[in-house]
Q: What sequence folds into this?
């Protein structure tokens, strides 16, 4: 594998990070253990298998080399455009044992995961880690997989983590068509299309900027959703029966995703009211990431994300009314598409030179709280059961990176007939994250009761 320049959005994630505010995503998998040595065996397997996964050998290296006059013109131009950027390249000193760690037995997997989520990944080596946590009960263990967002988005992280699980007989994927070589100068026949594309990009950028400005005009969020970063993390997980979600969807309409987002809105309402912050009149802005990765044809590396921005109807008292408002907002976003609107700010990263990401990354991170109030993301998981060392994966909780200035992020995955909510919070700002987790379960019960009446 050769060095590959970081895609613009990857570069943005790389530069947003600070020592006290890591930008990694993660997944906490909980396995049934068939023997007391299952966790140690799993750690050995992860280290052995990681050596054979090329994507896990890739480090990110900053590039500061300016072009020289002795370079050919094409090389000089490419070097100029990459100045201040970064590349993804194989680490010649890669050692899986630097990345896979076996910990002492844990009584609470989420408490241990929270402590580990607050620790940044080492940027000098491939930015990922796998932490194996034996359970004190002797019949379970957990594995926390951490990936820097510049190395992998949710889909890519899933692919890398799945490569470490027990092998299964799966259909051979179709090969990706070879991409045509691109010259330094475009073919003359392509110029009209390039001009139209440039104009469309400019129009889209103006549209996104105007939408962001409008979204901040009547901004009223809860202080509970913003905080000064403490450098600490808490995590919590909730498991919901997928049949219950389908029951709500069939009765009230909308999609499964609409129901899952409405559950977040209702849970936030309960949580804010019970902690004394109040929910009346609140409609915090939720960023809903949208993957632009196309199966079999998209480049396997690099973040390909846009997003929708919606107002969570936290102030709405009626649970079915909350679901209706979420459904309407999501339908409006889908009609407009993922390339326009305030949620599509990630697309603007493609038009910023690498040095601009380098210099503006810290400022961009601080601006996150002006753009949205809480992240609610969905991470797809395979429908078949996974195993590690023969021990089955019973639950998996996706854990999203926490944006600077935010106190809470929510990720959702569906696995083996259950919905798994993964909650990540600033450890100092949200000491009662467990209460929010219970509110998720209570909101599902409330929606079912409302549908039955």
A:
């Amino acid at each position: 594998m050769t060095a590959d320049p970081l895609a613009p959005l990857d570069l943005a994630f790389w530069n947003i990070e600070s020592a006290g505010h890591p930008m990694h995503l993660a997944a906490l998998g909980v396995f049934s253990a068939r023997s007391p040595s299952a966790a140690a065996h799993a750690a050995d397997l992860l280290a052995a298998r990681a050596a054979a996964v090329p994507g896990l050998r890739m480090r990110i290296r900053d590039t500061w080399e300016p072009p020289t006059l002795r370079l050919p013109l094409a090389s000089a131009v490419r070097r100029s455009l990459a100045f201040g950027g970064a590349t993804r390249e194989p680490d010649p000193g890669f050692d899986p044992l630097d990345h896979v760690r076996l910990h002492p037995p844990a009584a609470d997997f989420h408490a241990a995961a929270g402590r580990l989520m607050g620790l940044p990944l080492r940027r000098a080596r491939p930015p990922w880690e796998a932490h194996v946590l034996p359970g004190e009960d002797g019949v379970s263990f957990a594995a926390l997989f951490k990936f820097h967002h510049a190395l992998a988005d949710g889909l890519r992280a899933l692919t890398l983590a799945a490569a470490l699980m027990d092998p299964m007989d799966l259909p051979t994927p179709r090969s990706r068509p070879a991409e045509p070589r691109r010259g330094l100068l475009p073919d003359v026949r392509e110029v009209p299309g390039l001009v139209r594309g440039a104009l469309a990009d400019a129009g889209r950028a103006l549209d996104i900027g105007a939408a962001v400005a409008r979204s901040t005009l009547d901004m009223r969020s809860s202080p509970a959703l913003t905080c000064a970063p403490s450098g600490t993390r808490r995590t919590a997980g909730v498991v919901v029966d997928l049949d219950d979600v389908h029951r709500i969807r069939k009765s009230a309409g909308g999609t499964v995703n609409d129901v899952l987002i409405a559950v977040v809105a209702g849970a936030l309402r309960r949580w804010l009211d019970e902690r004394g912050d109040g929910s009346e009149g609140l409609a915090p802005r939720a960023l809903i990431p949208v993957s632009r990765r196309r199966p079999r044809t998209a480049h396997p590396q690099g973040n390909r994300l846009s997003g929708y921005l919606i107002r969570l109807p936290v102030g709405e008292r009626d649970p079915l009314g909350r679901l209706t408002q979420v459904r309407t907002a999501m339908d409006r976003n889908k009609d407009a598409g993922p390339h326009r609107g305030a949620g599509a700010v990630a697309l603007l990263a493609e038009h910023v030179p690498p040095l601009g990401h380098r210099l503006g990354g810290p400022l961009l991170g601080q601006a996150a709280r002006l753009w949205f109030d809480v992240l609610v993301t969905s991470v797809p998981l395979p429908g078949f059961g996974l195993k590690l060392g023969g021990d089955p994966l019973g639950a998996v909780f996706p854990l999203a990176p926490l944006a600077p200035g935010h106190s809470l992020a929510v990720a959702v995955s569906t696995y083996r007939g259950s919905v798994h909510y993964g909650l990540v919070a600033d450890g100092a700002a949200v000491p009662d994250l467990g209460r929010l987790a219970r509110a998720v379960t209570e909101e599902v019960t409330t929606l079912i009761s409302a549908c039955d009446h």
Q: What stands out?
A: The longest strand covers residues 24-32. Residues 253 and 324 are 8 Å apart (CA to CA).
